[in-house]
Amino acid sequence: MSATGNLTVLAEAAWPEPGDGAPPPVPGYVHSRFPPLVAAVAERCLTRAYGQRPAPDGERTAIVLVSAAGDRASAAHVRATVAAGGRPGPLFFFQSVPNSVAGHVAARWGLGGPVLCLAPVGDPRAEGTAEVELLLHDGDADRALLVLIEQASDDGGARDAGGQPGTRAVAVLLGGGDAP
Predict the structure, then answer these.
(1) 130-152 pLDDT tens trace
(2) Phi and psi torsions of 83, nearest 5°
(3) Per DSSP, what are the bridge partners of residue 168?
(4) What is the distance between the alpha carbons of residues 61 and 144, in angstroms, rounded to a whole number?
(5) Is 83 left (phi over 0), alpha (psi -120 to 50) or beta?
(6) Spatial contact of 119 and 67, defined as CB atoms under 8 Å apart
(7) To pair with 169 at 20 to 30 A between CA atoms, which of 26, 46, 125, 140?
(8) Pair 179, 8: CB distance under 8 Å
(9) End-to-end CA distance of the chain
(10) Torsion sign (Cα): 108, 116, 171, 69
(11) Cα–Cα distance list, 83 to 59, 72, 91, 179 (Å)
């Protein structure tokens, strides 16, 4: 456990970590690696904090998902489908909203706090942490899971272990400065 300003880091995880390939699929999500990556890094972080699902009874944990570009792959797919005169499949209706996977994580873990998505204009971690501090200060949550994710553009650059553009995610469970 470490402290960050007025917050305490209760658990932290990244995806990928050594030995990771592609994140496991998430039922109901198709085409994009964004939702599985969010779910995998959140699961890893929450497991490190709580051991297993669900979170302790009465847990008011917010989820703050921070991504400047959101789900690039789903957005590109929908854009191309519509431009070609097609209709996106029904799964893209909810999947195209980044907070849908945050809500999925909250439901799986029994988290009872607000779910927010931010598109930062500056430092993603600093902006996400500031939002967490506000949620805790205002009493909207006791803890917050901060998920930072950016999908790399498919520009021929570095690839991850699954052969996909080098997309990375970090999840940090934060509590107030006096958190146990």
Answers:
(1) 999 999 999 999 999 999 998 77
(2) -60, -30
(3) 150
(4) 5
(5) alpha
(6) yes
(7) 140
(8) yes
(9) 9
(10) positive
(11) 44, 16, 18, 50
